[in-house]
Amino acid sequence: MAKCPGCGAEIQFDHPGKPGFIPYEVYTKRLEEGKEIVCQRCFKLKHYGMLVSEADEEEIMDFIMKAIKKFKHIIYIFDVFDFEGTFRSEIVELLAGANVFYVANKFDTLPKTVSGSQLKEWLKHRIPAKSSEIFITSTKNGFGISKLKKELENLKGSALVLGVTNVGKSSLLKAITDSSATVSPYPGTTIGLIEHRLVNLKLFDSPGIVVNDRMIDLFDPECQSKILAKGEVTRKTFKPFPEETIFVGGLCQLKAEMKDVSLRPIFQIFAPENVTFHKTKNQNFLQNYPKHFGKLLFPPCGKMDVEKIAFKEEKVVVDVNQELSISGLCWINVKRGPVEFTVRVPENVRIYVREALIKPKRKINPNSEN
User: Fold this and answer.
1) What 3-state class would DSSP assign to 85?
2) Domain of 296, in residue numbers
3) CA distances from 280 to 88, 184, 204, 325, 344 (A)
4) pLDDT, tens only, 47-93
5) What's this model's pTM, rounded to 2 decimal places?
6) Which residues, listed in sequence order, are joined to residue 3 by a DSSP beta bridge?
7) Looking at residue 366, what DSSP letter applies?
């Protein structure tokens, strides 16, 4: 049976809503007219931006585990804004023995103060690869695309393209191969292996790997597409009092105070442009915050039953030259510290303390209120 050129799924007529489905009468009509045949899912994504089905998580992971063993060359793409959420050590471990190209995508989402060389140096301390194997790209402004393309054009044979959902795999492949694969902001768009050609190299795009420890994973695909960073991320500086709570969206609450002195901490929060920030000490608001979901607090994109969500509260100390990363949501750069953060998030969401990507331009005197 033929495969959908958009997502790689086998065309089928019996299971609406499942990968590869197209009504038989539509299939025969388009076949007679000599028109391109894509599944109903890809057709609606392409023309209406509608998602009509999702792939099975266990099937995807089993499929990818088997596929990895068949390829000598691997292109591992991750989202540079959500590094901790999309650069997965458990995936890297599976790539031992392969020739791996690490691609830090969505460079355009980072603050313009972060240069490509600065980012690459930061990545070299976190990626088990030679610097020549790390590529920084942006399909939005074309940064690094020609360099990656030139390097891949020197290869022969086949390469497998890997990445967590929504790191931009399909968009990147379209940029370097001029392919016609379905590109959408929804996770799990790619269902099977989709073949692309680049000179003497066959590139096989794989399904997006589904993980469940990022904040973004808690939301439906339509909501995810709204909160993914689509341009330079928003930053906001905070200097809170200990009794104040900062909301990043609706499901992340932060409290912060200086660890060693009585002054207020200073830090910046970086998040996608549609994620909202709200600082408050109003007890009525804190007790009834879910009524603001989808409005003042975004994400979630609308009503959500918080009674069904198990939360955890963690205390973590972050110093100057360090950042606190909340997977799939934001990261926090400390300007005056050390800061003890009390973080309340859903229990599956992972938080990390890391070396700062953005270094302070000047040292703030911890004993000054300036």
Assistant:
1) helix
2) 234-355
3) 35, 36, 49, 22, 15
4) 765 555 556 677 778 888 888 999 999 999 999 999 999 999 888 98
5) 0.83
6) 10
7) T
The band of 45, judged by pLDDT with boundaries at 50, 70 and 90, is confident
Residue 17 has φ and ψ, to the nearest 5°, of 90, -15
CB-CB neighbours of 61 under 10 Å: 14
Same domain, 46 and 128: no
- Judge contact between 310 and 346, C-beta under 8 A: yes
d(CA 221, CA 237): 30
For position 161, which CATH number holds? 3.40.50.300
Tell me: do 255 and 349 sit in the same domain: yes
Whole-angstrom Cα distance, residue 65 to residue 56? 15
Q: Compute CA distances 73 → 203, 285, 312, whole Å.
A: 9, 53, 40
In terms of domains, do 197 and 250 share one? no
- Tokens at residue 272, please? 């996608």
Three-state SS string across 110-134, please? CCCCCCHHHHHHHHHCCCCCCHHHE
Q: 286 CB contacts (<8 Å, ≥6 apart)?
A: 245, 280
